[in-house]
Description:
Helices cover about 40% and strands about 15% of the residues.
Amino acid sequence: MLGTGSVLADNGVTENRILLGQSAALSGPASALGTAMRDGALAYFDAVNAAGGVGGRQIVLTTLDDGYDPARAGPNTATLVDKERVFALFGYVGTPTSNAAQAWVEKGGVPFFAPMTGAESFRTPFNKNVFNIRNGYLEETEKIVEHLEAMGVKKVAVLYQNDAYGKSGLDGVTQALKKRNLDVMATAAVERNSVDVAAAVAKLKAAQPRAVVMISAYKSSAAFIRAMRKNNDHVPFFWNVSFVGSRALADELGPEASGVMISQVMPSPLDETLSIVKEYRKLYLNKPGREADYASLEGFIAAKVFVEGLRHVKGEPTRKNLIHALETMGAYNLGGYTVKFAPGNHNGSNYVDLSIITRSGRIQY
């Protein structure tokens, strides 16, 4: 019999464990998202491990802090793949940090599962190693613009983070407006991990849009909204895409969050009529100090889908066998949220909805 550290099938797989690697923001302005994504996943993995794991193997998630900085995410990925020799990369948080892992995914054939990003770079062109469990920014921004059109709003501006994430969202808004023979009336940028929004505020206040779609992180978005509302009679509608982190944004803004709208790619973490949400709340909220939110629910769902893929593997859990299992296991209804992969299509979900932050800080559909 092989020892506990002996590799049986593939990198990261021994007789008693399967090792996954994650690079995410555990510190810095996006830490609420990275921490929640990790903790949501661990809530499910821990429950699976307590019940004996998958095929007798424990699922172990190693997370390295990148501070939402691609310059750190790249070396983190090198450590996870080349030194720790993980079986798969799991639950990266953010577009620029996920982009930093692309080289290892492409050259090493490492499965890249459930990145928290809606960027097209992880959807087109098709990459057999990348599996998305969330809808994309093109679909989110289309939904937002569709709603603005129904409200009669045509003067739309965009605040975007000056990186791959922000530009991906800006492209989405631009495309959605062009379908309606409209243009983005004004744009302004904010740097990643910065709350220096003064120039952006001045520019967009002068433009006087009726709506601003924000493609940025929660701290910069909150700073922008607060400044736009200060001493200003012309207050536009504020929209964010899902990556902003709804709970983090609401907490950051406090009472000023009222009326801010957000597109969502996960069901409400408060909706206990859904069995997936009920299961998530039971396992995730069993530790003190936690609050249900979209990011931790996304981590929980990602872990559950990954485990389901492992359970469909025929033979040893190799990377090749995992990819085949995920592509052929069919539609997986988690109980209110369905994921389906296929050969040639690893975009597992088309779910998108709209929400608003109420006066009480509740995020409501």
